Give the backbone structure.
Amino acid sequence: MNCWGANDAGQLGDSTTDDHQTPVRVVAVGGSGNLSTVTAVVAGSRHSCALLSGGQVACWGANFSGQLGVGTTDAHTTPVLVRDISGRGDLNDVRSLHVGADHTCALLTSGQVVCWGANGSGQLGDGTATNRSVPTLVSGPDGRPMAGVRALAAGGFHTCATGSTGNVLCWGSNLFGQLGDGTTVDRVVPTAVLDADGDGTFGGVRTLTAGSFHTCAILVSSRAACWGANFFGQLGDGSARDRTVATPVVPVGGGDGQLRAVRELIAAGNHTCSLLGTGTVACWGGNDNGQLGIDTTEPQQTPALVLTADANPLGGIRAIAAGSHHSCAMPTDGRLTCWGGNDRGQLGDGSRTERSTPGWVATTI
């Protein structure tokens, strides 16, 4: 496994705090060899976590709020195993892993959810605003542990989950309506997201993603909807108006209708990107560092296709990812291409030069 970019808190996991402009190997748990058997990796503000093939979780980097889940608030520059809810054993049976700015959540194979780390806005969903240095069970609206969860997403200071019927529940910070419940009131336990009319429960959701202050969903119809902060157009509805209920994303270029054939959706700091059924990528929202990949730094309130250096749509993509001010994509040949902010080397191309169109990540060492 490899990481690159900012490393002031050890979030690259290479046992140093030196930034890296090209990929470096993450050290294994225990400090000997390289971290392997990784099935998924996620990155927060200044910490990173990996889901291992055995269902365990390893985290590294900043830990001032307990976001590494190891029972202390000591930072770690190499991976350490997350503890279980008792704090005495290792967390197991994790299906998927999600991180916010300074909190981390895991969906278990049982359909329950555990979270740990910062909780000042109630983003851990345990009914309190108390930070936790080991995983704690998320409580449902009835006060019992949440169950039957199919998908999970962690935003900057909030968290959302999809239930067994395709409904969505969110909790935590709600300053810009990112919980989608029709209000801007923070919630310490899950609350239901409302549909675009604001008078019914939002449903039919397949998967979720969350940015700093906004949330998006892919529906079973392969359309997309977003809610929350929209000052840069990151909701993709053709406006810059915040939304407190789920709002459909419009097609590429705007106009009537909805964005269709959405295969993957990534909400980042102040922008959003989607992988479409054609293998192309469309992004919208903030673009101050070129993170939309459209060869300008102008924000976009509607989806715009990511362009190559020769002004053709980027195609043949099978996966996408995004950070606060940069975005990345993986073509079918397995290489990586990134664009946007690069002040800490987060594009992995050996420079600190930002790019408004995709450039190749350096070969893994």
Q: What stands out?
A: The chain is about 0% helix and 40% strand.
